[in-house]
């Protein structure tokens, strides 16, 4: 890593609170509401631990700045088509500012996961991530006719993200995970750098340092839920939300319902006029923190407690990557509708054809209605109840966490998996990687394509929404999909789903044209998931990317009757989400028509060579 690159100031590393619960083995089938069963909790208190190999003197701000520059440059290369040479520096001309930059190429990735060395002006003066962001965004704004506010907003996000990454790396260098942490939780909290192709993956403007210590997965935070009591007349719900929440909910006065909230959201809600009116009129009462400790997962707002049979997806009004993360009513309805569709026969069909793949259920939701005059259907107190099918010994990994780079902290978990497999089998790392990718496609991606081919149901299976199950030796042997937001139902091919659940896709407002679904799944499944996998194997594990791309291309061709798979295998270019331009345009991916929520660009198809 280049020593010449100047770095932003380092945030003070925050105290890290340790995990404290182990969960009983989960049933293979989706669990039923708490009112139908007896819940058993096993709690083990574990003190904070310190890494024996801690290096607190490490310059983590420099590591963070290097990672931020890499992410910005990857975005720029992908979204502009800038050539990346095999050797020597890449040259970036920026006519809007009359500037030229040079970036040393440390690794050129066919899948787009390049790694860069120093970034500098032609004079040799080094360029920091904040300066790089200002120059790139100025160029983008000039080309798209935007104003200076876009530059200011995105540069602030890049600065915030970079400083937080430095804090995360510093904290991880001196603290170790607790012995009782589950593989699921380890993977959920492994994304220290965040999305490798986003300009500000860890930006959380509005979050104080003390709050970050409690609610950040990267700092292994934990917290009790904050609870409100709401009059039944202002509560909307589907499914047995009360039954699911009963084992850990506080008591409420007669006629009131217990509603959980994220602790950051609970504080912020008090500033909203609608919530203030409900509190002043006693329709809503603030009960404060209560119950067991919950751990933030990769999405920050979905929380997990190893001793509970549910996870909770809570509204969180922080701008994270490309949107504020508050649950929308249509998404709440969508999750329950898919749960009903699975119960109506789709789960049985999926199990018959792909018995090792499952969909994590969202069987219920609970929300407080805002008072009249607020101008929107959400109050900020919307909760998704998500089933937790994972036991403490299940080796189930969020794919993004498995592939996450952790510079200076032992590298990505996938490199350890491949090294262990190579040592056990006596094969080379390349052979092991090719076998791993083939198994991954069959266990995780093939079921997603099968659902779309036979039922017209698209799953937004990017790496953070995709979970892979590993066998005892580290090979993929199963998979899961999760996310109540990311279901697409084909207008043209909804007949089979209609047979199972008449009107499906109406409540969730997620019927789409095939062209829209193909674009979204082409990016999420093909580019983000599969090309991201190959890029990580190449840039982090040293594998040759071309054989992996060819292997996956042949797997895609086995779905030759599906236009999406054919396009991924053989099209000259692919549609790809442009995260830098999406941020330059100030878009919120949860607002507005599906077709216009993000900026997309064309990129060369690495599968086709």
UniProtKB/TrEMBL annotation:
Residues 28-62 are annotated as: Disordered. GO terms for biological process: siderophore biosynthetic process. Pathway: Siderophore biosynthesis. Coiled coil: none annotated. It holds the Pfam family IucA_IucC. The keyword Signal applies. Gene3D superfamilies: 1.10.510.40, 6.10.250.3370. It comes from the Bacteria. InterPro entries: Aerobactin_biosyn_IucA/IucC_N, IucA/IucC-like_C, LucA/IucC-like. Residues 41-51 have a biased composition (Low complexity). The keyword Signal applies. Residues 434-589 form the Aerobactin siderophore biosynthesis IucA/IucC-like C-terminal domain. Keywords: Signal. Residues 184-404 form the Aerobactin siderophore biosynthesis IucA/IucC N-terminal domain. Residues 1-29 form the signal peptide. GO terms for molecular function: acid-amino acid ligase activity. Belongs to the IucA/IucC family. This is Siderophore biosynthesis protein. The lineage of its organism: Bacteria, Bacillati, Actinomycetota, Actinomycetes, Pseudonocardiales.
């Amino acid at each position: 890593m280049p020593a010449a690159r100047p770095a932003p100031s380092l945030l003070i590393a925050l105290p890290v609170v340790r995990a404290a619960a182990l969960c009983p083995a989960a049933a293979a089938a989706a669990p039923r509401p708490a009112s139908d069963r007896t819940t058993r909790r096993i709690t083990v208190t574990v003190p904070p631990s310190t890494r024996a190999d801690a290096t607190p003197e490490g310059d983590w701000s420099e590591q963070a700045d290097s990672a931020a520059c890499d992410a910005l440059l990857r975005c720029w290369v992908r979204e502009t088509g800038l050539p990346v040479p095999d050797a020597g520096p890449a040259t970036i001309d920026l006519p809007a500012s009359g500037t030229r930059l040079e970036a040393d190429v440390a690794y050129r990735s066919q899948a787009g996961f390049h790694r860069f060395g120093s970034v500098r002006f032609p004079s040799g003066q080094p360029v920091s991530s904040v300066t790089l962001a200002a120059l790139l965004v100025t160029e983008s704004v000039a080309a798209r006719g935007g104003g200076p506010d876009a530059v200011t907003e995105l540069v602030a996000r890049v600065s915030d993200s970079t400083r937080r990454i430095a804090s995360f790396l510093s904290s991880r260098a001196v603290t170790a995970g607790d012995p009782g942490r589950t593989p699921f939780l380890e993977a959920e909290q492994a994304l220290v750098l965040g999305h490798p192709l986003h300009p500000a993956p860890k930006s959380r403007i509005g979050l104080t340092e003390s709050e970050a210590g409690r609610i950040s997965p990267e700092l292994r935070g934990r917290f009790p839920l904050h609870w409100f009591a709401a009059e039944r007349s202002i509560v909307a719900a589907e499914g047995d939300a009360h039954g699911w929440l009963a084992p850990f909910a506080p008591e409420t006065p007669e006629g009131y319902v217990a509603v959980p909230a994220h602790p950051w959201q609970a504080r912020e809600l008090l500033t909203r006029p609608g919530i203030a009116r409900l509190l002043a009129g006693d329709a809503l009462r603030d009960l404060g923190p209560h119950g067991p400790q919950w751990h933030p997962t990769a999405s920050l707002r979905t929380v997990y407690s190893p001793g509970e049979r549910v996870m909770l997806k809570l509204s969180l009004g922080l701008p994270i990557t490309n949107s504020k993360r508050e649950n929308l009513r249509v998404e709440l309805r969508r999750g329950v509708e898919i749960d009903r569709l699975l119960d109506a026969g789709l789960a049985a069909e999926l199990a018959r054809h792909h018995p090792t793949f499952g969909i994590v259920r969202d069987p219920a939701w609970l929300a407080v209605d805002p008072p009249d005059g607020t101008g929107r259907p959400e109050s900020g107190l919307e909760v998704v109840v998500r089933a937790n099918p994972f036991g403490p010994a299940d080796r189930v990994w969020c794919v993004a966490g498995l592939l996450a780079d952790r510079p200076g902290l032992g590298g990505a978990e996938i490199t350890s998996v491949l090294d262990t497999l190579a040592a056990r089998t006596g094969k080379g790392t390349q052979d092991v990687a090719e076998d791993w990718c083939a198994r991954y496609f069959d266990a995780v991606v093939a079921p997603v394509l099968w659902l779309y081919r036979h039922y017209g149901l698209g799953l937004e299976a990017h790496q953070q929404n995709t979970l892979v199950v590993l066998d005892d030796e580290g090979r993929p042997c199963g998979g899961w999909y999760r996310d109540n937001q990311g279901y697409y139902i084909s207008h043209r091919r909804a007949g089979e789903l209609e047979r199972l659940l008449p009107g499906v896709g109406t409540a969730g407002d997620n019927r789409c044209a095939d062209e829209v679904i193909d674009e979204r799944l082409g990016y999420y499944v093909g580019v983000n998931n599969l090309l991201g996998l190959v890029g990580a194997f190449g840039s982090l594990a040293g594998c040759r990317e071309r054989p992996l791309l060819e292997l996956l291309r042949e797997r895609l061709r086995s779905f030759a009757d599906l236009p999406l798979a054919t396009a991924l295998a053989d099209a000259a270019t692919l549609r790809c989400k442009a995260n830098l331009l999406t941020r330059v345009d100030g878009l919120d991916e949860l607002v507005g028509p599906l077709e216009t929520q993000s900026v997309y660009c064309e990129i060369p198809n690495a599968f086709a060579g």
